[in-house]
Design brief:
Elements lengths: L2 E7 L6 E8 L5 E3 L18 H12 L11 H4 L18 E2 L6 E2 L35 E2 L5 E2 L1 H4 L1 H5 L1 H5 L8 H10 L2 H11 L7 H12 L8 H6 L8 H12 L16 E3 L20 E3 L21 H11 L25 H12 L26
Antiparallel strand pairs: 1-2, 2-3, 4-5, 6-7, 8-9
């Protein structure tokens, strides 16, 4: 019997509730009753339960949500890549393959997505401040924070042409089309009725709630750094401890602050444009501002920045060394528009290695890596990734 763990986060102390799951002979994942109630703050209208998370997991992996039935949420947020895709810019509709081997089919008129795929690990905690407080209904999503909450975030990829929508239907009818598809599948009708009740349980809002509930189980908060902070002074090496001190002394926590190593604010950084794009990405409101990403699990989520332009953490450190003089790295961003919180990170090579070692100590590999054998639509889990 295959087992799957849903790990539900709690606030402040970051302890976990472990929930056991089992797999039926047909390979579809179901989850046993909760051993205890989740205590993390979620929307009152969207509590995280085993049934809700199991439904969300099925939808997350099912390409029935994409226009041409070839892309799933998991295509670009795959557990083998820490819920990213390992690419600088993602390939969504009309593409095949997984990770670095993903490519467009021919003929093709779909463009690359213009931004790097953010990890979904710990997205449940987006917006958390330095004291561990956050409100899930206003949590900033995407690189430009244009959407609030996991429930609302889900609509974006579904309706975007190059991500999941493709040619099958127009943006205006996307959600209604998905609802109609799911309604025709008896297994989904039963799953939605179990979770939400009633004979009309399959709605766009409930799709968002189910996927958001599953995404709130994707937590990774037991890194060597966390164990060190809880008193295990052997959890970090001397090199990592030195890197932690440099990280602090160089001012990195000005923006990479709090339990999630992010202030979740927008900053103008002048990251160079990705040359694969036909036009410059001007960020939030055309200001070239982008949201500070969490550094948790950063060692697993290369390439870096909103457009994946840096392949290594060493390249990221060089960027902060150059920009802090200050020198703009993007011709569309005048020096005077650079964020006033920017500080130069000028480190010797050995010190850079120490900081990178510390950043790697923010990795918790013990997250949910389950890949279902099947999904209710009968399509390939994860879309055309094989």
């Amino acid at each position: 019997m295959r087992r799957n763990l849903f790990i539900l986060p709690t606030i402040l102390i970051f302890s976990v509730v472990v929930i056991e799951a089992c797999t039926k002979d047909d390979g579809y994942t179901t989850v046993s009753p909760l051993v205890s109630s989740p205590t993390e703050p979620v929307e009152v209208s969207n509590p995280v339960t085993n049934d809700t998370a199991a439904l969300g997991q099925a939808l997350f992996w099912d390409p029935i949500l994409s226009g041409d039935k070839d892309v799933a949420c998991a295509t670009c947020h795959h557990p083998n890549n820490a819920y990213t895709d390992g690419l600088d810019l993602s390939l969504g509709a009309n593409a095949v393959g997984y990770g670095q081997n993903r490519r467009f089919l021919k003929p093709n008129d779909v463009m690359l997505t213009k931004r790097n795929s953010l990890t979904l690990l710990n997205a449940a905690f987006n917006g958390m401040d330095g004291n561990g407080n956050y409100v899930s209904s206003t949590a900033p999503m995407f690189w430009d924070s244009r959407t609030k909450s996991l429930e609302e975030q889900i609509v974006g990829p579904l309706t975007t042409f190059e991500e999941m929508r493709g040619h099958a239907y127009s943006e205006a009818v996307t959600l209604d089309s998905i609802v109609n598809r799911l309604t025709k599948i008896a297994e989904y009708r039963q799953l939605f009725q179990t979770v939400f009740g009633g004979n009309q349980a399959i709605t766009a809002a409930n799709i968002g709630k189910a996927i958001a509930a599953f995404e709130r189980t994707l937590t990774a908060m037991n890194s060597p750094y966390d164990r060190y902070q809880k008193g295990d002074k052997t959890a970090l090496s001397d090199q990592q401890v030195q890197g932690m001190l440099h990280f602090k002394d160089e001012g990195c926590p000005i923006c990479h602050s709090g339990p999630m190593f992010s202030d979740y604010q927008l900053h103008v950084m002048s990251v160079p444009d990705n040359t694969q794009l036909t036009s410059s990405d001007a960020g939030a409101g055309g200001t070239y501002a982008f949201r500070t990403p969490s550094l948790r699990n950063v060692g697993l989520t290369a390439p870096y920045m909103h457009n994946g332009v840096f392949q290594t953490l060493k390249q990221v450190l060089k960027f902060y060394d150059d920009i802090g003089e200050p020198i703009s790295q993007n011709p569309h961003v005048p020096v005077q528009r650079l964020d006033d919180k920017i500080q130069r990170i000028a480190l010797l090579p050995a010190e850079q290695d120490q900081v990178i070692a510390f950043l790697n100590a923010l990795t918790d590999p013990g997250f949910n890596k389950f890949i279902p054998a099947r999904v209710p639509s009968g399509l390939n889990p994860g879309g055309n990734i094989r």
